[in-house]
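Components:
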Amino acid sequence: MSDGDIPGVTVTAGPPAESPEVETRSRRMTLNMGPQHPSTHGVLRLELELEGETILSARPDIGYLHTGIEKEFEVKNYQQGVTLTDRIDYLAPLSNNLCYCLAVEKLLAIEIPPMAQWTRVMLTELTRLNSHLVWLGTHAIDIGAMSVFLYCFREREDILRIFEMYSGQRMMTSYFRIGGLALEPPRGWQKRIKDFIDVFPTRVDEYEELLTNNRIWIGRTKGVGFMSVEDMLDLGVTGPMLRAAGLKWDIRKTEPYSSYEKFDFEIPTRTENDVYARYLVRIEEMRQSARIVKQALEGMPEGRWTADAPNVVLPDREKMKTQMEALIYHFKIVTEGFRVPAGEVYQVIESPRGEVGYYVVSDGTAKPYRVHVRGPSFGNLQAVPCMVERTLIADVIASIGSMDFVLGDTDR
Amino acid sequence: MAPEELNRFPVVKALGEVAPGALIGGKYDRGELTLEIAADRIVSVCRYLKNEQQFPRLSTVTGVDWYPQEPRFEVVYHLHSLERNERMRLKCRVPGDHPEIDSVTAVWRGANWYEREVFDLFGIRFRNHPELTRIMLPQDWEGHPLRKDYPITGPRV
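Structure:
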């Protein structure tokens, strides 16, 4: 031991390993990423087999957040089920509310008044902004741009306050109900939305200033996370991922629901099909969503916020106190719920993450016989191995971040 | 056989011609087309629909338990054609005492996780599935929670 060596540590000097084959084999390793890794945003475990820094195989392990929501639907009545849909995807509760309500309304064959439909569109688009903002902020943190997160959460806070004003809740809003909206829109909503939507486009400019031409951002995201459109379709990938691969498919346009056909907006697409393109698509989607919110604000129709369906929608408090019939309906709806004609429907909508589908089977009673939720994150996450295999481990974070999955939506 | 009125759908007519006997029922309800397929023909029907009828997407696979009816389980497939902007539902009935059906993972790779989920939560086995293990619940879990005879609450502790 010479002077300057650390006591207790023996360093064996010798020539480097002679056979490169031996050296390579010793470098192969299995790495568990998660379930508590911060960049997985929830509890996802990725089993990576590495050779050096190259990923040989990846295996996502999910189910950590499975809460049996589909089972729970079967013991709740239809209206109570709305509260479960909030808890599936904590970044897009209103999208899930909407899809479930549309499915049950299709079974009931009830017509929703235009005012409720437009409010639904407006709030669902704010949900899209909310979700994309959280995605952008956390995705940027993962890649190393800390400050974007603070900017994004500034606007997200405004959106959550709007939700709170509408429903009394910031996240688990349950504001859409079967038959319309839970409450009459609050007084002064126009000003709150207008104040927000007037400045929001300039905020998007701010995010873009931080990232779009940022050399480090481009270096970390361009050319990373490629996957062919055929693979995506085959594996069940939907949403902005597909649009960044050049496929112009958006359910809001192809199968319009809740009067989306009355709004004027573009579907942004890119053809580069990498993490950077997905970023650009989502940024443009935010601008388009802001346009939709603006149109909804300006053209909001007058009228009721609930459907004319006394056996489904709770009567007004005032009527309940003065009219016998309203009191009876109120009693029946509260005690046993409403019966839904037997049948089955599969309703899909475009959530911030892609195609959300609710398959609702009714046997004619007041509780759903079966509800299956097709979460977009589940389909997207399945494509992780296809996307990250044979790439570098440092790119995994950027690649899976660009998928924008929510584990609650995956595991349900 | 599918009801006569469904023959106005080109896909039903074509299916009846290329795979006689595979189509054992169906309905058109609330704007949605449902076809009931003989369980042993599901893979060939799916392959035909994907390759010849432009259904490149399998939106989801799930199950329904009709306990105590027999055949007890229904495996439900939701297909989507981007080109024609059409959706379709396929259904197969499988018996309760030995629930088994062929896997469609060879047709759509995306069926992999959906079938694992159905296996996990309903206990329906998918033949020729590359990795038929539980996906939501721990590997040593007993029972299949989405079955109707599985209790909603556990014992008090």
